[in-house]
UniProtKB/TrEMBL annotation, chain A:
<keyword id="KW-1003">Cell membrane</keyword>
<keyword id="KW-0472">Membrane</keyword>
<feature type="transmembrane region" description="Helical">
    <location>
        <begin position="174"/>
        <end position="195"/>
    </location>
</feature>
<feature type="transmembrane region" description="Helical">
    <location>
        <begin position="60"/>
        <end position="86"/>
    </location>
</feature>
<feature type="transmembrane region" description="Helical">
    <location>
        <begin position="134"/>
        <end position="162"/>
    </location>
</feature>
<dbReference type="Pfam" id="PF03916">
    <property type="entry name" value="NrfD"/>
</dbReference>
<feature type="transmembrane region" description="Helical">
    <location>
        <begin position="246"/>
        <end position="264"/>
    </location>
</feature>
<dbReference type="InterPro" id="IPR005614">
    <property type="entry name" value="NrfD-like"/>
</dbReference>
<keyword id="KW-1133">Transmembrane helix</keyword>
Automatic annotation (TrEMBL), chain B:
<keyword id="KW-0479">Metal-binding</keyword>
<dbReference type="InterPro" id="IPR006311">
    <property type="entry name" value="TAT_signal"/>
</dbReference>
<feature type="domain" description="4Fe-4S ferredoxin-type">
    <location>
        <begin position="196"/>
        <end position="225"/>
    </location>
</feature>
<keyword id="KW-0408">Iron</keyword>
<keyword id="KW-0004">4Fe-4S</keyword>
<keyword id="KW-0411">Iron-sulfur</keyword>
<protein>
    <submittedName>
        <fullName>4Fe-4S ferredoxin</fullName>
    </submittedName>
</protein>
<dbReference type="InterPro" id="IPR050954">
    <property type="entry name" value="ET_IronSulfur_Cluster-Binding"/>
</dbReference>
<dbReference type="InterPro" id="IPR017896">
    <property type="entry name" value="4Fe4S_Fe-S-bd"/>
</dbReference>
Amino acid sequence: MGIIHFFTACFKELLKGGAAYWIWVTSLMLLVIQGVVTYAGQLQEGLIKTGMSDQVSWGIYVANFTFLVGMAAAAVMLVIPAYIFHNKDAKRVVILAEGLAVAASLMCMLFVTVDMGRPDRLWHLMPIVGHINFPYSLLTWDVLVLNGYLILNLLIPMYLLYNKYMGKEGNYKLVLTGAVLSMFWAISIHTVTAFLFSSNTARPFWSSALHAPKFLASAFAAGPAFIILSFKVIDMSGAFKIGKKTINLLAIIVTVALQINLLMTGAEFFAEFYSEGAHSASARYLFFGLNGADKLVPWIYSAIAMSLIALVLLMIRQTREHPITLSIACVLVVIGVWIEKGMGFVIPGFIPTPIGEIFEYTPNMHEVQVSLGIWGIGLLVFTALVKAAIPIQNGVLTHSK
Amino acid sequence: MNKDTTLKEKKAGVSRRKALKAFGLGATVAAGAAVASATPGKPSKVDISFDDQMGNYFQDHYKKMTKEEIKEALARLERRYKATYDVDIKVDNMPAQPGVLFGYALNISKCKGYRECVKACTETNNQSRDPEIQFIRVLEMDKGSMNMEEANHYFSDDETVPKPDKWYLPIQCHQCENPPCVKACPVEATWKEPDGITVIDYNWCIGCRMCMNACPYWARRFNWKAPSLPKEDINPVTHYLANRPREKGVVEKCFFCLQKTRKGEMPACQEACPTGARVFGNLLDPNSEIRYVLEHKNIFRLKEDLQTEPKFWYYSD
Ligand code: SF4
């Protein structure tokens, strides 16, 4: 019975809110609706609506997917200190971070689905009824770990919140086990996604062992940066006071991860260009353009510039602790990493093709609209989770009331 | 159809259907099926019975179907093609013949870049005409160089080939013995047949394009939209795993014309080549021409270092 009360109370909570809240929710819904309408066109006519081709067969959908796997994994950055080292500051906000993990993994799945040529055959990927090529195909691994991660990150905070709501003490050991599990799981979703690319021996740009660790580093920069930004919004709305200490902790995580990420980018740059060979063609295309084709060059340099500016802002103590400069740095990190891992990583792997054709890709309006729709869904889910979780967390919303 | 996949898989097939019902998917997917199954032509005009749509939607993986289920599936396809194209298309499922392993060798000193193979391939294999899907890509390169990034992929048709300072390299599916595309496919919609040809079950492919990323020879093509295939261009003699008309959102590629070669004929590209640059045959037959070429000519394979063991060789006189 308690569980039903719990869910109705949460749902009622979603209907309360000021003007700003409703403007936010309505605009997200509009975003979702235009996305759904656009996607309906794709269902009807096929992926021809996108800018993809036989040459560049993955585009901005998979780019978003790759980026969001990182966001999902980043929730773990708060789980570690919160549950294991009993860091009080981190503990207060970890539920919000897990909300981010849920929203991000959901978006990952949606991006994979809209990228499929035959979404009506999704059931072929299900165990028992379908026929999955496990363990050989890396995509089956990705589907499994992502689903597992989503469930895990739904269950842990739900268990905690439910207990809080009922005024009970949860089973600490159970939560700890779940937390440790989700930590490893976060690393696995990311590693598996990196392997999805690096397993393609035919595409030297992707088949570097450095990608798995680099994915982790960039995720641990962009994820916490996004969390800081959402904390700022929550903080401004007055719903929840998030301590300076927590934000500081996160800012330091972002700084270190960003440094490691840039170091690895540098190492890659050296390996590709010191003794440039056929394997470097994609990297040359990305950084300098190839035979006159250079559509990605502005993308990658803006990404690098954003990361560098953010790094400077984050490394100086005054700017790191100042709310405005910190916010700017976080925005730069999120966008910079999005470009680097999406457009800067997925696309150049296809150019040139394995038989040397140079055929470029730019996302078209259709893809942008569908992607925005999915982001709308993700942000709505995140908003709803946070909205319901905060009053429970604060002890405002309980069973007795 | 593999023998070892009969009984066990038969059971799996039954439980699959049960499970689908249990999941309550029957009703929800029905709506999707109605849209999806009508894709080959213009959905509004095609009249396909509800039973066929359901049968098509719930059709199992090719290797998991029983003999009867395959028969039903073939009949269903023939009815669908009739409704879509108004042509009587025969869909065959002749299995690989014992003692056969197909291989191909191409004489680069004879190839003059006429691209007759490309045309014949499309005419025989029912590829979409708009957008035009071609299985063979001929590269034009400077003599003395093999830098594919410098190659011309789009030398024009009315130009007089061969140009004096160029040489030509046709590339199609190399039918690897160790195919990376098969490994990459999440649903085993693509696999290597006993006669060495990698095929695709167009009814099982989910269109994720993992296989396209994995292919070192850029041999795979995707149906970005419903293929458009004019009635008069259709080759009505087809095979389930090969040249039957395809549908929207699935991958396809060269299958060594298995609808012909399994019957002892030559693939269309071999027949069409005016210079006799193409040698096709059974690698297990010591007296075959292909074996002679492999044993007596200077041969090489593209990207051998990737260890995919392609069964497609190039040679020169
Ligand atoms: S596109 Fe089709 S054949 Fe290729 S990997 Fe995906 S499901 Fe398999």
